[in-house]
Every structure is written in structure tokens, then in C-alpha cells.
Specification:
Length: about 350
């Protein structure tokens, strides 16, 4: 009896200490991201999105933002959702922007943790996993400062990929869902909301838009064959496709491409440069790729792939989203280093998912 009491007391104390360490770690990253986001000066594209498109004046209202982005869609680019967010944050000021960035960072860490889970786990009880996520974000994210602290870039890659991670959770969890989740009936009134959220996700960025359409189509085929497909999956997928089409067919994208072609742009030469950037992005995420390979080797060695087939498909789905978002950039006329951000985020989730599978044995 006393032994059981002592064990319970020890377990409770360990849990309490773990929770304290977790909160301390999250608090550190919140203030770190907040401080640097607040202190970094505005430069480059930030100034452009402070201005009303086509006019020589600063944005003075949210109506100005709507007008500016309407013009932007037809004259320069189709990424309306992240650009509306960027102009809104720049209009609201440094304090709001820094707080939003820090809060989104914690949400990102939480979503990477949750989308990689193959069973229910309490976020605050897993200090080591949270430490792994934040460490890998620090080490593997290319142009870390630009991606997280420069408002326009953060809105294009950091905020949008976090949002996409949230929606992809519905697909990732579909592989390991139980009967209750599979037959879960959402209110029909919410289905248009899922479609709208899907449109926004597909409209965010060219590489992530392609990736979520491609990977989610493969997931839906699997769900259909195994009687797991539900209306939420269908509404999100249709939204992804609609948003992606709105993005890639924007007149502004064609205007920008025409301006590049009028210069010295050579697509054939660009392919070789793009391949170099692609390989460099893989190299800078080599720790994650090595971890994936090792964990998959352990799954093969211990013969658990068939036992945890759906869980491995969950990890594969996460990897496909990340890899497709990076690989498609080879064919883009512009391949900035920051565009590898989604690959890094989804690769971290893939590693954790494989670890959770191996750790069950």
C-alpha cells in the first residue's frame, strides 16, 4: 500500500515538474519570437504592403487594404489571403504584429505535435517532443529571421503554413480514425465553412496549394477505398482546388511572368539553378531526413509496418505534403530559400509521427 502511494506521489511530482519545464520552454519561445518580431525594423516588402497599391499614400483603413489587394490581384500576384493579413498587421502596428507572430509560433508547435500523434497525447506532458520541435525549427528553417520576423514573409510562409497544418490534421487523422470519428456527423451548416477554409488554404501560396491538392487527393482515394471518406474531407479538398485555381489563374501572376520574360530570364538555365536550391534545401534539412530514414529502418527491422499500416500512411501523407511543396518549386520561375519552410514544418511532423510508431513497440 505504501509502495503504491509512493509511486503515485513520485509520478505526480514528475508530471508536475514536466509541466513546469514545458510551460517555461513555451514561455521562453513566446517572448523570444515577440521580442525579435517587435525589434526588427521594417524594410523591403514591408513598405510596399504599407502602401495602397497604385497610389502614393499609406494604408489608412481596412477598406484601403481591400482596394489595394483587389488591384494587387490584377497587377502583380494572386496571394490575396497572406497579403491581406500582411497589410492588416502592418497597419495595426508592431505590438499587434509581434503578439500575433509569437502566438502563431506556439500554435505551430502545438499543431506539429498534434498532427504527428497516432493516439491521444497530452501536449504539456511531452517536454522532449516540444524541445525537439522548437530545436528543429531553429536549426532547419532556412532564412529563419526572414521567415519568422519579417512581416510580409511571415504571412506568406509562416502564418499560412500553420493554417494549412491545421486543416491537414483532418486528413492526417483520417488514416488512424476510429469508427466513431469515421461516422462522425458534422452539422450541414458547418460544411460551407470547411469549404471556405479550404479555399483560403489553397489560395495562400502556389507551392503549398499544389501540395495539399496533390496529397489530399491521394488521401481521399485511400479513404474512399477503405470507407473512411466523409463530407469534411470532400469539402476541404474541393476548397483546396478552388483556392489553388483562384491563385494560379490570377491576372497578376501572368503580368509578373511576362515582365520576367521581357528581361534576360531563361527558363532552361533556371532549371539548373532551381535544382541547386532544391538540393541545398534538402541538405539543410538533412538532420530530419536522416531521422526519417533511421526510424523507417527501425520499422522495417522490427517488422511493424503491416501492424501499423495506417499510422505509416499518416506519416507518408505528411511527408508528401512537405516534399511536394518543395519539389514543385523546381518548375517555378522564382525559387527563394524561404519557400522551403513548409517542407521543414511537415518534415518535423513526419519524424515525430514515425517516432511515435516505433515508440509503441
Amino acid at each position: 500500500m505504501y509502495t503504491n502511494q509512493n509511486n503515485f506521489t513520485l509520478s505526480f511530482s514528475t508530471l508536475k515538474m514536466t509541466n513546469k519545464k514545458t510551460f517555461a520552454l513555451l514561455l521562453f519561445w513566446f517572448f523570444f519570437i515577440f521580442a525579435f518580431s517587435y525589434l526588427i525594423p521594417d524594410f523591403s516588402n514591408n513598405y510596399r504592403y504599407m502602401m495602397v497599391e497604385g497610389e502614393d499614400r499609406l494604408i489608412a483603413s481596412f477598406y484601403d487594404i481591400v482596394v489595394s489587394q483587389y488591384r494587387h490581384y490584377f497587377s502583380w500576384g494572386g496571394r490575396t489571403p497572406p497579403h491581406v493579413l500582411a497589410s492588416s498587421l502592418l497597419y495595426l502596428g508592431k505590438g499587434v504584429t509581434a503578439f500575433a507572430t509569437a502566438a502563431c509560433y506556439l500554435i505551430l508547435v502545438y499543431l506539429i505535435f498534434k498532427i504527428s500523434c497516432i493516439e491521444k497525447q497530452v501536449f504539456t506532458k511531452h517536454f522532449n517532443k516540444i524541445l525537439f520541435i522548437t530545436t528543429m525549427l531553429w536549426i532547419c528553417t532556412r532564412n529563419y529571421g526572414e521567415v519568422f520576423f519579417m512581416t510580409v514573409t511571415a504571412c506568406n510562409y509562416f502564418f499560412t503554413t500553420t493554417f494549412i497544418l491545421f486543416l491537414c490534421t483532418y486528413f492526417a487523422k483520417g488514416f488512424v480514425s476510429n469508427e466513431n470519428f469515421k461516422k462522425q456527423n458534422f452539422s450541414k451548416a458547418l460544411l460551407p465553412l470547411f469549404f471556405i477554409l479550404g479555399v483560403i488554404a489553397g489560395w495562400c501560396n502556389e507551392n503549398t496549394g499544389f501540395a495539399i491538392c496533390f496529397a489530399s487527393f491521394l488521401a481521399m482515394v485511400h479513404f474512399y477505398l477503405h470507407k473512411k471518406l466523409n463530407t469534411v474531407h470532400l469539402c476541404l479538398f474541393l476548397g483546396f482546388c478552388a483556392g489553388f485555381l483562384i491563385l494560379v489563374l490570377s491576372p497578376g501572376n501572368h503580368v509578373r511572368l511576362e515582365n520576367m520574360e521581357k528581361g534576360s530570364f531563361d527558363y532552361f538555365e533556371h532549371i539548373f539553378t532551381a535544382m541547386e536550391i532544391f538540393l541545398l534545401s534538402l541538405l539543410e534539412n538533412s538532420l530530419l531526413l536522416i531521422a526519417m530514414a533511421y526510424l523507417f529502418y527501425l520499422s522495417v527491422k522490427h517488422k511493424i509496418i503491416s501492424k501499423y499500416k495506417e499510422q505509416h500512411l499518416q506519416a507518408l501523407y505528411l511527408f508528401i505534403v512537405g516534399f511536394a511543396s518543395l519539389a514543385i518549386m523546381i518548375f517555378s520561375p522564382n525559387f527563394p530559400a524561404r519557400s522551403s519552410t513548409p517542407f521543414t514544418f511537415f518534415s518535423i511532423a513526419t519524424v515525430l509521427c514515425l517516432y511515435n510508431i516505433v515508440n509503441k513497440e
